[in-house]
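Example complex used in Figure S2.
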Amino acid sequence: MDVTLKIARGAPPLSPSPWRFALYFYLKSRYTLLGIFVFEAAQAACTILLPYAIKEIIDAVTLANQTGSNVFAAAENALILFAVLNLGIVLFSRASGAMLVMTGPFLRAEIRKSLFSYLQHHSHRYFISHFAGSLASRIAEVSMSSMHALWTITFDFYPLIIKSVVALIVLFGASGELALVLTLWLGIYIYVSYLLARRCRVYAKDFAEARSLVTGKIVDSVTNVMNAKMFARRRYEEDYLTDYLNHEVDHALRTYWYMEKLRWFQFTAALVLMVAMVGYALKIWSDGNMTVGEFSMVAGLTILLIEAARGLSRSFLEFFEYLGNISDGVSIFVQSHEIIDKPDAPRLTVDRGVITFCDVCFIYKEGMQVFDHLNVTIEAKQQVGLVGFSGSGKSTFVNLILRLFEPHAGAILIDGQNILDVTQDSLRENISMIPQDPQLFHRSLMENIRYGRLDASDEEVIEAAKKAYAHEFILETEQRYASLVGERGVKLSGGQRQRIAIARAILKNSPILILDEATSSLDSVTEKKIQLGLENLMKGRTVVVVAHRLSTISHMDRILVFDQGRIIEDGSHEQLLRRKGHYAHLWNMQAGGFLPEKEES
Ligand SMILES: Nc1ncnc2c1ncn2[C@@H]1O[C@H](COP(=O)(O)OP(=O)(O)OP(=O)(O)O)[C@@H](O)[C@H]1O
Ligand SMILES: [Mg+2]
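Predicted assembly (601 residues):
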């Protein structure tokens, strides 16, 4: 177990060991679970004592017949015992059922909530390296498996133990030899079931992997359905999937045939026990060392125990599978959080909005240095444009300000405070970021805009939408501000999504504003219109704007030209044009249009 797991404050203290992970949740419901265990034990004991009550009845009746006394009077106590046991089964099982209802849904919700909360503290890097769909389905899988593992213990393994112990005690009263036979059988049966299940575990795991591979392929095909349509490759996609389905079937067959073998073992073992016990009991009976009641009790106990032990291999197998699921999921979720607030980190206070990069070094991964001792200061309320070729580090620069990644050396200061020393929440509350491809929730437009400031009134939301030139197109949608926007906002055009994001930033009203290609999807006419709204928004704030369209930033106070992680030019539009350097070259080439993807010279 990774003892040095670093967990962000506010995240639940989950353990990376599957056992401890599950135990952490089980203990949260310890009292109801204890209740379930008590009632299950009582129910198991009542069930296995039934043959004993029958024995008492038979023996009482036999005796009454011999002595000629009243049968009912003689068997009265035994009959009462029989009735009480049956009543006990009803009451205890229902009491346990009620406690299950009172625990199960809450426990499952608790597991999901904790996993989700833990997940939310993971870094940006974590989320760009894991698939959203697979994370979501794993949360469901881990919570399901944690529950099923618990129920397998509670309703399969545990009652079998109770029943075996009670049966052995009762049997010991009738015949020590029979009790010994049963003990031997139980020992061998449980051990072999365990071994067989363990061997099958590999098959079951491969089968599960094959299943999820097929699911993954289907998801990929569905996501790329436009590709299949555009290239007329429906048939190809079906054949492609068939290969994976065949693979799944192979693994299914291997697992199911093995399970059939397991059943052969179970049924044969049951047969052997039945014959041995009854045969042996018959012998003891014929020797006169056993009553007819005791004989029937032995038969009854054996049948009941066989019933309880049937499927033990399967339970073991499923149990291993649940443990495997938990351990898979836990290994993905319960990792150290990469970016953690320092203990007692203060909040960031921004009164001027000066951003300083001091000797910042940053790499995404070994051998790929993006920034090497970058130094730059963005003054208070300065409006700065960033330009440069694709891949020159503009977005990385912005991501570092937002602390989505941390520099490996050097420091980034905002108003003199190192952003690594303050809380991430306070940092991000002070910065509004509008990305190139803003993502929206599948919630109403009203909710999406209000995300910028949760206590904004409807009027304020509409006001912000008007400033972002989003109001008009929103009125044209079917349900206006109540319209839903589809997964990630796919039912809006790129430019419409950007305008929603701008409205959101207007509401947020934070002292630092960052736009990374935020108006790139807008046509020139709409961009011009929004520019007015944006200029209003930019007034009195520190602003960083990344843009490929130079006309978007030509009016800014200052322009930084990036090239392979270095700032090669720094000055206003006029200054840079006079320098006749990189910027002037780009400006001339573009003539108000777009930057070329690669420099041609
Ligand atoms: N998450 C990441 N993991 C690894 N490398 C990355 C990651 N994000 C960016 N890079 C690399 O870092 C370098 C700088 O990328 P960045 O996104 O900052 O460029 P950019 O100037 O914003 O480009 P564009 O104009 O295309 O948006 C590129 O070489 C890119 O491949
Ligand atoms: Mg970028």
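The mean pLDDT is 88. The domain at 345-430+547-601 is CATH 3.40.50.300 (Rossmann fold).
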